[in-house]
Amino acid sequence: MEDVLPSGLLEICLLVGVPRERVRALLQGTQRKPKSLPPLDPEVLSVFVPPFISRDDIQVINAGNNSNKSKRRSFRKKKERPKIENVKSLNGEQKATDTEDITVPVDIDLIGLPQLCFPGGLYVTSESKEDHIHFLVFTDVCGNRTYGVVAQYYQPMQDGCISLNGQAHWDSAQTGKMPVCFVPFAICVISRYPYFNAIKDCLSCLLVQLRPLKDLDVEEHIKEFAAKLFLIPSPPPGPLHLVFNMKPLQIIIPSREDPDSPIIDLDLHLPLLCFKPEQVLQIMTCILTEQRIVFFSSDWALLTLIAECFMLYLHPLQWQHTFVPLLSRQMLDFVMAPTSFLMGCHIDHFEEVSTETEDLILINIDNGDITHSKMAEEELEIPDVPAQAAETFIKRVESLQLHYDLELCHLRASTDLGELQMRRRAWQQKLNTEVQQMTLQLIVNIFREVKDHLNYEHRVFNSEEFLKTRATGDQPFYKKVLESYMFHSFLKARLNRKMDAFARLELSTQSEEDGLNLMFHTPRRLTMEKMASKRFNPQYLISRRMVISMPNLQDIKLPEGPARNSSLRRIETSVAVKMPSKSVSTFKIPEIHFPLMFQCVHSYYTDFFNHLSKAINTLPPDNSALLARYFYLRGLISLMQGKLLNALSDFQNLDKTDLRIFPTDLVRKIVETMPPSERLQADRKPELKKLISRVMEKQREVMKIDDHVKNFELPKTHMQLDDFVKRIQESGIVKDIDTIHRLFDALTVGHQKQIDPETFRDFYNYWKETEAEAQEVNLPPTVIEHLDKNECVYKLSSSVKTNYGVGKIALTQKRLFLLTEGGRPGYVQIAAFRDIEDVKSTTVAFLLLRIPTLRIKTLSKKEVFEANLKTECDLWYLIVKEMWAGKKMADDHKDPQYIQQALTNVLLMDAVVGALQSSKTIYAASKLSYFDRMKNEVPMMVPKTTSETLKHKINPSAGETFPQAIDVLLYTPGHLDPSERPGNAHPKLWCALNEGKVVVFDASSWSIQQHCFKMGRSKLTCMIMVEQSHVWIGSQDSIIYIINTHSMSCNKQLNDHRSDVTDIIVEKKNGIPSEAYSSSLDGTVIAWNISTLKVNRVFQLPCQNLTSIKLHNDQLWCCTGSCILVVSTHEFQLQMKIEHHLKDVCSYFLCFQLFPERDEVWASYSGSSDLYIWNTKDFSSTPQKIHLQDCSEITCMIRVKNQMWVGSSGRSQGKSKGKIYVISAEKKTVEKELVGHADTVKALCSAEDRYVLSGSGKEEGKIAIWKAE
């Protein structure tokens, strides 16, 4: 079972030095003074390995033998496997041996370690020196790191004996006696965790305690110290630090912020004291470009601390190569390694290293210099960090308060050591947080736009295109970084949509443009706002829209594409992006008096368990983050005590408090090593049985994550349709499969149905060249002022003669205008697409020639625009007609995505014409005229009622290859919490798609707030806002997922259902949520305490197929296939029942709604187009029936004010369609029939009773927003 236990603070402890008889022999044999002695070879004198109390000790004590003699666990270093025999104490006496086999952790190298404990050599001195501490980092072959903290101290020696209290037992001046000398020893604590400050403090306390001790007591004391550290657990990630007493100091063990974050227990600002901000950036560039780097310092401790700080600055990017931040003088040849590395040496070896080895980056910590060693061939160029990101970083560094003394000026002097320590620690913690945020912001600013060049479906990164979009001065940096292993791992995490620190900050600082780009997948072009800003700064600005209330959609003018609030992308330099600081609690670990005695260890665990239980019982249930940490720690303590079932129960509580820290591997190991009797007991408890099966299933499910990353390459072979689709999607040009099919038809006109690599290359290059040229378009301010800030110029004609003058015709997503030529370029409006009345392609006579001419007639002008476009005329004719048709569709259907699709179509037409260069190019391009063809073939008139009621449409599947069905919709109103970012105050629209996906829209602007996160892999069935900060989501996998609306993450889940969760409702008392009810398909209803998430009551209905529940007046209405049951909420006693009354035995109840004010219940049956209304006071009477025209089945219904909105499925001309019927509750008549979806209406929800939102099936996959009267 000991293999199962997680590591404590200490992995192993060693005493390193030289045996005293060697020093004595040297001094006597050579009659030398200590100063003239050569450096001695240090060796491991003793090793202290846990467990310090073995199972045998426990059995002896349990048998009544109260001996507190513990087994000595120290041995001498050998070249082979260390054995326990021949162990010598500090003075060299032979110790009693013990036959117990002691194992050292496999990854600890006892042979190389002594050199690292004395990296500058071990010298016997004639006078005492100050104690000295330094730090080590070890990396195993798998890349796992362990950490060492080494404390060197000096002990006086005379005749080979250590003096007491540093005083000799006899007068050293006696004749014939050797002078007193001082021998250094080192205590090395090795831990799995980088608790540099904590272990340094512990060792500092130990050194104080060792001073008065006699030689023979030192080892016992170190062993006791090691045993004590072994008993200290590492805290779980989150807002709880552990504190324990190590006289005279209080030691704090900090937790990591979240499971993906590193542990930070050092002073993160140290590099900022040693280097200027520009040099810090230079060093970060060296690490990002994976150079061979050597740090130098006269202080051994600084080498490791500075190197570790730089590793933390780059988080979540991780250094993948050799990392040895401290080399002893015997290890200097390590710097000859040919691969990338980061190492550290003493400053004394600077000349030797710099002259002996080529191509090294040499960083002098002491004076802040960064130099190169001699070069093999060309000078090594260290590229600059991208300019704008660097500027932001430097300004933030300059704004930091890095000197603690300045902080102390206004404070009273502290007279208490503990207070002094806590004050300094609080200052350091605050500064560490600021440095972390600042460096993370730097990484986000450098790599933010990588996501724009990723294809998630095929796991492709288009590095070439990414590089082209970088500023010229930034390209050398990106070229080098893109080749690194660090960047490759970073790409894998992006393609896996990992929600790490980078993703969270990127999301929280994304502009509205970023969100809208996700919705529309628009071809990249400069907006007018960007173009204007380009004159002053080529980079971009982070900006966020701060809106609280839901917009008045009836007042919104339909955006002609992404209605970007701010499209500037210059990174803000004056204002730092600051995250709210999180409050952290501390938990005092009970005293451990005699860690080598079983009774004391046993009582320590008992006290620890009791303290945790008390904390759990006194903590309010809404503080679930802290509760989770207490449960986790109590589970660990139960595990240490061998109480496996108690441990499992506490770990199970993490489901309802904080899932993220659930120790899956640990629980699996517990289950695998559990004795059969205990396993039987666990299986008798349903909740533990489910926990065990879940953990063991998860292990079986662990499939290898596909984490390959492909760089985009042009195809080298002929492509059939399927391969062509994949290649175009990989290229990032377009994702929609139907559009790619039309493009395939266009490129294969007159050929067999396959595309050769040359055609693909010509098309791709033309598309990218056009994109690049459009980025270079620079309109004068006089033209920009006529255009909207979010408009982009997508195409310019060559210079042509028109009846408005000579100039170039420009196309934006809203209009055509003429960029006139001459002395000063000017702007002449040709037509807004919505104003076009007619477009014609004709010819006009000029001398003997007929010149192709484009004519555009508009509603607002009598004069017809004419342009002699010559060879371009046919293409412009197709382009204008497609944009006109797309604009009409967008206006009619209130769906701005149509104009984006039309834009994509015309740009594809342009690229087809540019690539093919044949007589059939215009015919080929016409294959892409999708909207124009639709307008001519099927005139799509939107009924007046639909047009007036429909306000807007959005597509949650934008950017996907296929539309996805919308299973559930939920609107949550905005609220302003002072501790949160303003963006969190916005109202949100939650949309559940297939396989557990949830997309969240910011309902104040309809930009995607969090593009997509997953709740399991099954279909989601229901969503409800239970409290202001929590949304509960039910799934077919029988789990209720609880989303924190601030962090937008799922940290809790409820696992008590045994079947598909079908519905969740909330009971409110005086407007405050008091209890939640959830139902599952097997007929179970569970009542939940919302704050504690404990089950209040469970009820099993007498029938299965429970599909939905409603609540009114302490009565629960339950809809099953065969009947609607009414039960009381407290005793769950059956009170009423509505029987299935249709003759068709195959039909069943599908959905229902209550109208309590009218004493009515409305319901529908499967396969029926009729609505049935019962009077709740008399179920025996025949229900009233409302027949819905043109409807196959009623799929969902929602009550809005005094109306019932009913979603349906139907067929029209052989295709699915979805109608919404608005029925007056009073008149029982259909007031409106709304034709808004090209597939079944699957979900309805209300937004503040002002709007109704409807979602459709997978053929269309869109959300319509309707005005509620």
TrEMBL record:
Q: Which Gene Ontology biological process is one annotated for this entry?
A: protein catabolic process
Q: Which SUPFAM superfamilies match?
A: WD40 repeat-like
The record's InterPro entries line, in alphabetical order, gives: cDENN_dom, dDENN_dom, DENN_C, DENN_Domain_GEFs, TPR_DENND3, Tripartite_DENN, uDENN_dom, WD40/YVTN_repeat-like_dom_sf
The UniProt entry's GO CC annotations, sorted and at most eight, read:
cytoplasmic vesicle
Which Gene Ontology molecular function entries are recorded, alphabetically? Answer: guanyl-nucleotide exchange factor activity
Entry-linked Pfam families: DENN, TPR_DENND3, uDENN
Basic residues bias (residue ranges):
69-81
Q: Which SMART domains match?
A: dDENN, DENN, WD40
Q: Where is the UDENN domain?
A: 68-501
The record's region (Disordered) falls at 63-92
Q: Where in the cell is it found?
A: Cytoplasm
Q: Which UniProt keywords apply?
A: Cytoplasm, Guanine-nucleotide releasing factor, Phosphoprotein, Repeat, WD repeat
Q: Which domain of life is it from?
A: Eukaryota
Q: How does it assemble?
A: Forms oligomers. Interacts with 6 of the 7 known isoforms of 14-3-3 proteins.
Give the protein's recorded name.
DENN domain-containing protein 3
The protein's organism comes out as Aquila chrysaetos chrysaetos
